[in-house]
Amino acid sequence: MKDINTSAFAIEVVDLVKKFGNFTANDHLTFNVRRGEIFGFLGANGAGKTTAIKILCGLMAPTSGQVVVAGYNVMTHPELVKQNIGYMSQKFSLYEDLTIFENIRLYGAIYGLTANEIRQRSDTILRKLGLLKDRSRLIKTLSLGWKQKLAFSVAMVHHPKIVFLDEPTSGVDPVTRRQFWELIYEAAADGITIFVTTHYLDEAEYCDRVTVMVDGHIKALDTPAKLKKQFNVDTMNEVFLNLTR
Amino acid sequence: MRILFYLLQKEFIQIYRNKTILRLIFVIPVVQLLILVNAATLEMRKQQLSVVDEDHSPWSKRLISVLDASPFFVVGKNDENVLSAKKKIEKGEIDFLLVIPQGFESSLMSNEQVKIQLLANAINSQQAQLGYAYLQQVIAGLSQSFVKETYGVLPQAGIVTTFSYWYNPELNYKHFMVPGILVVLVSVVGMFLTAMNLVREKEMGTIEQINVTPVRKWQFIVAKLLPFLLIGLFELALGLTIGKLIYQIPIEGSLWLVFAIATLYLTGLLGLGLLLSTISSSQQQVTFVSFFFLLVFILMSGIFTSVDNMPEWGQKLNLLNPLYYFIDLMRAILLKGAGLSDLWKQVTGISVLAVFLFGLAVLNYRKTI
């Protein structure tokens, strides 16, 4: 296996195939994600985005193909991959019956942070989100927008090299979506690679490069500007419609 | 170890915040012990007995009064003929019918064989057997009294059976039941709580966030098992206290041994609960499957019926039944005061099951689908 630490890529995927019975969710995907870039993964519902992201995170085994994340093969060293990535699921998955701080503490500890580090990072997170007074609030009392921002922060509590976001802004109001993308930019500025799936096409404009998936295939992969030029249109929305039609 | 500590902390906070579980933990043992021990009784008391006395002699009257005086029978109004009394059995109004034929006293006097007839409602065969055995005892006693009072000496005994009931001299049925009910209690509470807990994380989706971390499988499974193991031990302690205070159950053996074995037992049983929850995807599924296992375990365990009466294949099957070992061990330690050296066979059995089931739960838990 190629050693990625010397390469410019955070994620390397070659010929990834995932089949569920007769259904092929991912059909020979091949792509690289550069270090520090915001990589958008677009596609309609059922295009195979979530399946791909779960395979990259080691939550699901691929049928065939090679997946190297943060320098480690996901099949052979899943635990090393997991130590170096953060993941935010499509379905909110923090503990609703724990407080904000208890969730941060739990995940901080699982990733091996010391009690001191946990306290510091939780303070940083809470200050950044303006939740300092809500440290001891139960998660279930928060609104969806807060939940999503918090889930993102918890996914980054251990300062991972790569963070995977699966439709992080679905169901969230436009203001909160904007704030959420500010958080993403901040993380990217710290050198963290962002892998984000979405079906909001305006969000695609915020990405360095985007991939458009259709029925398990990669139909396009380039910067938003080049894609728009290629199809001779003004918005990513039109690019998407051109590709999926 | 540090990670395990934080995982356990999380589990305990969640249990503490779940008021339903807290209430169940305290209410279930009290209700089960107060109601079940008294209700689930095999004791024979106050059986309705009708007598058709065709002899009307002093000794027949004496037989009736002896039966009436015993706690087992309540003698109803005498019936005039056998037919109408039989009807009562058919209707379920009486449990036993005793027919004392004419000439009962005279045959007693002339030292002939005494013939009386007992009709029992044998729908409950155990009860019918016990009633029959008891009546035989009473009549044997009566004929002894007769000989003694008539000849002033005890009859020459051929073979005299004497009884002495070991370990439970008063034949206190509750002393026998409490340890069994306690085991059922600890099992039901422990297994359901454990199984539901892990599947709930699947349903809520929280397990995915855990699976994407480098947490080790054994850490996660131990953190899921240990809190409920401690709850189980707490239930056992609470149950033993209730048993001691209310039913005065004897505690002949070592309590340390009881709790050490309970720990082994719970590791196995909760391991099974976790194993079932690793293969289930909803709380509904896991409840149903756990219920199935528990029901088979409980009914085969010997809590209500003697394992020795089971067919041989049933007894062999019981070697896989954790409840069978634990109920047997509990009764042996509490009632007989048995020690480890007497019980090594069962302790080995329960240990093997514990290692096997817990190991299987860890192995079968998948972080990757």
From TrEMBL, chain A:
<dbReference type="GO" id="GO:0016887">
    <property type="term" value="F:ATP hydrolysis activity"/>
</dbReference>
<keyword id="KW-0547">Nucleotide-binding</keyword>
<dbReference type="InterPro" id="IPR003593">
    <property type="entry name" value="AAA+_ATPase"/>
</dbReference>
<keyword id="KW-0067">ATP-binding</keyword>
<dbReference type="InterPro" id="IPR017871">
    <property type="entry name" value="ABC_transporter-like_CS"/>
</dbReference>
<dbReference type="InterPro" id="IPR003439">
    <property type="entry name" value="ABC_transporter-like_ATP-bd"/>
</dbReference>
<dbReference type="Pfam" id="PF00005">
    <property type="entry name" value="ABC_tran"/>
</dbReference>
<feature type="domain" description="ABC transporter">
    <location>
        <begin position="11"/>
        <end position="240"/>
    </location>
</feature>
<dbReference type="GO" id="GO:0005524">
    <property type="term" value="F:ATP binding"/>
</dbReference>
<protein>
    <submittedName>
        <fullName>ABC-2 type transport system ATP-binding protein</fullName>
    </submittedName>
</protein>
<dbReference type="InterPro" id="IPR027417">
    <property type="entry name" value="P-loop_NTPase"/>
</dbReference>
TrEMBL record, chain B:
<keyword id="KW-0812">Transmembrane</keyword>
<dbReference type="Pfam" id="PF12698">
    <property type="entry name" value="ABC2_membrane_3"/>
</dbReference>
<feature type="domain" description="ABC transmembrane type-2">
    <location>
        <begin position="140"/>
        <end position="368"/>
    </location>
</feature>
<feature type="transmembrane region" description="Helical">
    <location>
        <begin position="21"/>
        <end position="40"/>
    </location>
</feature>
<feature type="transmembrane region" description="Helical">
    <location>
        <begin position="288"/>
        <end position="307"/>
    </location>
</feature>
<dbReference type="InterPro" id="IPR051449">
    <property type="entry name" value="ABC-2_transporter_component"/>
</dbReference>
<feature type="transmembrane region" description="Helical">
    <location>
        <begin position="220"/>
        <end position="242"/>
    </location>
</feature>
<keyword id="KW-1003">Cell membrane</keyword>
<keyword id="KW-0813">Transport</keyword>
<dbReference type="GO" id="GO:0005886">
    <property type="term" value="C:plasma membrane"/>
</dbReference>
<dbReference type="GO" id="GO:0140359">
    <property type="term" value="F:ABC-type transporter activity"/>
</dbReference>
<keyword id="KW-1133">Transmembrane helix</keyword>
<protein>
    <submittedName>
        <fullName>ABC-2 type transport system permease protein</fullName>
    </submittedName>
</protein>
<feature type="transmembrane region" description="Helical">
    <location>
        <begin position="176"/>
        <end position="199"/>
    </location>
</feature>
<comment type="similarity">
    <text>Belongs to the ABC-2 integral membrane protein family.</text>
</comment>
<feature type="transmembrane region" description="Helical">
    <location>
        <begin position="343"/>
        <end position="363"/>
    </location>
</feature>
<keyword id="KW-0472">Membrane</keyword>
<dbReference type="InterPro" id="IPR047817">
    <property type="entry name" value="ABC2_TM_bact-type"/>
</dbReference>
<feature type="transmembrane region" description="Helical">
    <location>
        <begin position="254"/>
        <end position="276"/>
    </location>
</feature>
<dbReference type="InterPro" id="IPR013525">
    <property type="entry name" value="ABC2_TM"/>
</dbReference>
